[in-house]
């Protein structure tokens, strides 16, 4: 795969997996190394594949942007090696805050969701 960019290699790799017509895909950090617009495009495309193609995609994503976070259906949130939330991504922030399971105010999921639950972020950060 010479002569193509890192972003193109990543998208090509995902496309090859999709073309295999498996009902379950495991993707390890499909957005790592991509700019925010490309990362959003990749996750949005994966979401369409889940909805339209009747597939399940399990993926690890570190530091999702707010826009990417809103595309997630279900979420398994890890902190310090432990599962602190598993369920509907839209409920993750409220559940984690309600259970006081945060190890620090800098957990990336809070920053990714700051527009999603701004009041909770203000509360956690003491602003």
Automatic annotation (TrEMBL):
Answer yes or no on keyword Transmembrane.
no
User: What are the protein's UniProt keywords?
Assistant: Signal, Transport
Q: Which residues cross the membrane?
A: none
- Signal peptide (UniProt feature, chain positions): 1-33
| Family statement drawn from the similarity comment of this UniProt entry | Belongs to the ABC transporter superfamily. ABCG family. Eye pigment precursor importer (TC 3.A.1.204) subfamily.
Protein's name in the database:
Uncharacterized protein
Query: What organism does this protein naturally occur in?
Result: Zingiber officinale (Ginger)
């Amino acid at each position: 795969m010479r002569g193509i960019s890192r972003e193109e290699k990543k998208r090509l790799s995902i496309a090859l997996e999709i073309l295999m017509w498996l009902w379950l895909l495991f993707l390890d950090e499909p957005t790592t190394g991509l700019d925010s617009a490309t990362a959003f495009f990749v996750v949005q495309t994966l979401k369409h594949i889940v909805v339209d193609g009747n597939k399940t995609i399990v993926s690890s994503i570190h530091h999702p942007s707010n826009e990417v976070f809103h595309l997630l259906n279900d979420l398994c949130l890890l902190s310090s090696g432990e599962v602190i939330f598993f369920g509907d991504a839209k409920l993750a922030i409220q559940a984690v805050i309600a259970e006081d399971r945060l190890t620090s105010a800098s957990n990336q999921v809070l920053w990714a969701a700051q527009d999603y639950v701004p009041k909770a972020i203000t509360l956690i950060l003491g602003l």
